[in-house]
Amino acid sequence: MKFAKNMGMSLARMSIVVVFIITAVYNVVVFTIPFNRVGGFWTGYGFSMFALALMAAVCFYAFDREGLRSKVYGVSLLSVVWCYLIVQLIFGLLEMILYFVPFQFGIALNAILLGACLIGLITVNAGKEEVERIDEKIKEKVFYIKTLQTDVESLAGRAQDDLKKPLKDLVETIRYSDPMNSPQLAAIENKIEVKTAVLAEAVDSSDGDAVKALCNEMQQLFAERNRKCKILK
Fold first, then answer.
1. How many angstroms separate the CA atoms of 177 and 143, rounded?
2. What SS3 state is found at 221?
3. Of the four listed, 93, 153, 214, 217, which is most buried by Cβ atoms within 10 Å?
4. Counting beta carbons within 10 angstroms of the beta carbon of residue 231, is it exposed (0 to 12), middle (13 to 18) or buried (19 or more)?
């Protein structure tokens, strides 16, 4: 996670630096060349500056999230806004050169380009947020499975030698269980948690028959849970 965060910050900083360089060069070019500064010039210039500002804003937004997948979607957001920026800068220069074309046409064309860019950003961001939501659910469920696995491993560590095998088998079953998250699994997961608590009491009291029976019951519960996971997918 730290690597993903550092990668995101590095890309954001690099993009911001590039935006500042482009802004500086663009301003030097447009104010050094003796363009006719009429409506077309200011239309192209205004939309171009807005495109650069939008680029800077997206850079900060795209990578201010945790998770590698979020960073991947951040790159997709940058791809959309980079395409818009390049096209807008070109069109802005053309509007300055073709100053005799009514500037209203330039406003309409630039507005269409901006609208297409915003739609692209909204679409990509919607997918990004859905991935983040799914990632959070997966993390919660993986945490549930890992915690349960750790609890049973602890029981296996302090159990009598003749009871270690069924407990270790149960640990393996838990380790390879489907980490899927769904409200439909709540009932069976509650049963598993109850059985785990009872199993801990049986191990502490060295009740071998109860430990073996409970391990078998939990194996069946996990098998049922995995079958439900397949059905729900």
1. 12
2. helix
3. 214
4. exposed
What's the CA gap between 118 and 116, in Å, rounded? 6
| Dihedral sign of CA atoms 182, 187, 192, 197 in order | positive
- Cβ within 8 Å of residue 213, ≥6 positions away: none
Model pTM? 0.55
Q: Collapsing DSSP states into helix, strand and coil, what is residue 100?
A: coil
> Which helix (H) or strand (E) covers residue 46, if one does?
helix 39-62
Please report how many Cα atoms fall inside a 13 Å half-sphere around the Cα of residue 222, on the Cβ side. Answer: 23
Residue type, 97: I
In angstroms, the CA 21 to CA 146 distance is 48
Residue with tokens 């159990």: 159
pLDDT grade for 228, boundaries at 50, 70 and 90? confident
- Taking the C-alpha atoms of residue 40 and residue 232, their distance in angstroms, rounded to an integer, is 58
Buried/exposed 77-111: b ≥16 CB within 10 Å, e otherwise: bbebbeebbeebbebbbebbeebeeebeebbebbe
Map tokens 């785990």 to a residue: 196
- 166 vs 169: CA distance, rounded Å: 5
Instruction: Find where tokens 């980079």 sit.
Output: 82
User: Which amino acid, residue 101?
Assistant: V
Q: What gap in Å lies between CA 111 and CA 218, rounded to an integer? A: 62
Beta strands in 5-64 (DSSP E): none
Return the number of other C-beta atoms located less than 10 Å from residue 210's C-beta.
Answer: 16
CA 211, chain centre distance (Å): 42
CA atoms within 13 A on the CB side of 165: 1
- The pLDDT mean for the chain works out to 83
